[in-house]
Amino acid sequence: MLATRERDGARRSQDRTARCGYCGCLSPEGAAFCTGCGQILDGTGRCPSCGGSIAAFDRHCAGCGLTLRHGTKSKVSSRPLAALILAIVPGMFSLWGIGHLFAGKLKKGLLFLFMGLLMMLVGPFPLAFIVLFLPDLAFLIVVGAIAWVVLWLYQSVDAYREAGGE
Question: Are residues 124 and 68 in the same domain?
Answer without folding.
Answer: no
